[in-house]
Design a protein that fits this description.
Largest sheet: 7 strands, mixed
Bound molecules: pyridoxal-5'-phosphate
Number of strands: 19
Structural class: alpha/beta
CATH architecture of the largest domain: 3-Layer(aba) Sandwich
CATH class of the largest domain: Alpha Beta
Strand content: 5-15%
Length: about 550
């Protein structure tokens, strides 16, 4: 239970007036969760904020905002705070770093490095100087209101979600989409004449079309719904791979692959006697293209490469790499698990043969993902799993298979999650993937620069062509300890090998801390991370 005293000042929009205007009867029932929710609603919902200066006299006074005090998303963030915290922030805004009219805040004079919703974390730490921090007007502050979980407090702190490479949080639209599907549309697909069967089928196939458009595939038949990137790679290795990669044939994998893009190929090596050759990377965590090209032989059949590394953040030059592979007659699978959430992808432009990704990393649900394959390849491949839905005709003598995409979707698929993935794609497209990309790249640079100034820190993955992933170690402190300390501050990061052990070993490490960004992360959250890391590195 939060304690209120005469120092506690709760600024709130009029919407919460009723709850709050009677402190004696109501405030006693307000617990931490509610405090958090109210503060975040004010902060995130772009609501008019009470700016009444009379609170000094009566901290519980709630006044209607004056018209000039209505704040919009283009203005600095509202001066809303629950304060027993000192010092107060200076209300920076991503698109307007200049001080503004809100500087009338009586606490402004005490403002230091942090921000009202993070001020508990680093009240005394020197501010980090922004380095050309600007974005093309992606308003991550406003976006945050769409993500209910971001209102949560963890360990008494506002949640700072920097574990987006593991999974992204879901906007309300995606959550509602699942609800609506099950409340109004639920049916099996492709198998009924009734209304709901038709509606569910339409919704499922619409989602497929959205994916097709989103990644620039030529037709919806080239989009296969699977559980995620891992399943998609297993599908390709066990169908295309089994049929086409034989003993002593070679598979090239970069040293920065996720285990999901290594282990399935090892299975093929085990069963078919194929050879796996690692593609070397340099000290910045970039593929060494000259070395890459030297690896090709007439036996190179498959190149499987990540588009964006989940531990280094490197954006690989996949178009060039594919061109080189095709010149040598090899097929290329691109693991897009960490690219589709962060940058625009067009599978036709890069000429990928296969492209895979997971819905949950792109603000959609878990349990749904995508395999894109060129039609000519998918048509020639044998089915993977067998059962209902993927057949054209079955007798006890023989079975003929359905065409694309059904041939690869045996059994009842993950219909609701596919539909909600379509909603996630709509959501992203409404914002604009280019704006997301620029915002995240800018934030990544900002974070890299700020962290690099902390003594004792070593950043892993320093390519100028990187996005959204920041991995580091601190001298003398285990990654696990760092992550646990940050968790205590409400900051969610990963520690460990990140399912990319060969990549970490390339840098002489078994483990690292990884902060990974999403569209809703803010500069203030990066400051919060950096300040916490600075603190722990001094300890
Ligand atoms: C680059 C990369 N590939 C593949 C995967 C596997 O994704 P999923 O577990 O959703 O199948 C991940 C997950 O972190 C990843 O980062």
């Amino acid at each position: 239970m939060t304690m209120f005293n005469s120092d506690t000042k709760l600024y709130t929009p009029s919407r919460h007036k009723d709850v709050l205007k009677n402190p004696s009867s109501q405030l006693a029932h307000i617990d931490d969760d509610m405090i958090s929710r109210l503060a975040n609603e004010v902060y995130r919902e772009d609501l008019p904020v009470t700016m009444d200066r009379s609170y000094h006299d009566d901290p519980t006074t709630i006044d209607e905002p004056r018209p000039e005090e209505f704040l919009t998303i283009d203005q600095p963030r509202p001066e809303v705070f629950l304060t027993n915290d000192r010092p107060r922030p200076d209300n920076p805004h991503v698109n307007d770093p200049e001080p503004s009219h809100v500087t009338t805040d009586p606490y402004q004079q005490h403002a230091e490095s942090s921000y009202y919703f993070l001020s508990h974390l680093h009240p005394t730490v020197t501010p980090i100087q922004p380095i050309n921090y600007h974005t093309n007007h992606l308003d991550s502050y406003s976006l945050r209101k769409d993500f209910p979980i971001l209102r949560k407090r963890v360990n008494g702190r506002p949640l700072v979600w920097l574990d987006n490479s593991a999974t992204t949080q879901k906007p309300r639209a995606v959550i509602d989409s699942l609800d609506t599907y099950y409340s109004e549309t639920n049916s099996n697909v492709h198998r009924g004449a009734h209304t709901l069967a038709r509606q569910a089928t339409d919704a499922y196939e619409d989602a497929r079309k959205k994916v097709q458009m989103f990644i620039g595939a030529s037709s919806p038949e080239e989009i296969i719904f699977v559980r995620g990137a891992t399943e998609a790679i297993n599908l390709v290795s066990q169908t295309y791979g089994n049929a086409n990669i034989k003993e002593d044939d070679e598979i090239l994998l970069t040293m920065m692959e996720h285990h999901s893009n290594i282990v399935p190929w090892q299975k093929l090596r085990q069963s078919n006697g194929a050879i796996i050759k690692p593609i070397p990377i340099n000290d910045h965590g970039e593929v060494i293209l000259e070395e890459y090209e030297k690896l090709f032989t007439p036996r190179t059949k498959m190149v499987a490469i990540t588009h964006v590394s989940n531990v280094l953040g490197t954006v690989n030059p996949v178009r060039t790499m594919i061109e080189i592979a095709h010149k040598h007659g090899a097929i290329v699978l691109v693991d897009g698990a960490q690219s589709v959430p962060h940058l625009g992808v067009n599978v036709n432009q890069i000429d990928a043969d296969f492209y895979v990704f997971s819905g949950h990393k792109i603000y959609g649900p878990t349990g749904i993902g995508v395999l894109y394959g060129k039609r000519i390849l998918l048509e020639a491949m044998p089915p993977w799993q067998r059962g209902g839905g993927m057949i054209k005709d079955v007798s006890f003598d023989k079975t003929t298979y359905n065409g694309l995409p059904n041939k690869f979707e045996a059994g009842t698929g993950n219909i609701a999650d596919a539909v909600a993935l379509g909603t996630a794609i709509d959501y992203i497209q409404n914002i604009g993937i280019d704006r997301i990309e620029e915002h995240e790249r800018t934030l990544t640079k900002y974070a890299m620069h700020a962290l690099s100034e902390i003594p004792g820190i070593r950043l892993i993955g320093t390519s100028p062509s990187k996005t959204s992933v920041i991995a580091f170690v601190i001298d003398g402190i285990s990654s696990d300890s760092v992550a646990r300390y940050l968790n205590g501050e409400g900051i969610a990061v990963r520690s460990g090998h990140h399912c990319a052990q060969p990549a970490l070993r390339r840098f002489g490490l078994d483990s690292a801390v990884r902060a990974s960004l999403g569209m809703y992360n803010t500069k203030e959250e990066i400051d919060c991370l950096v300040n916490a890391v600075r603190k722990i590195s001094r300890s």
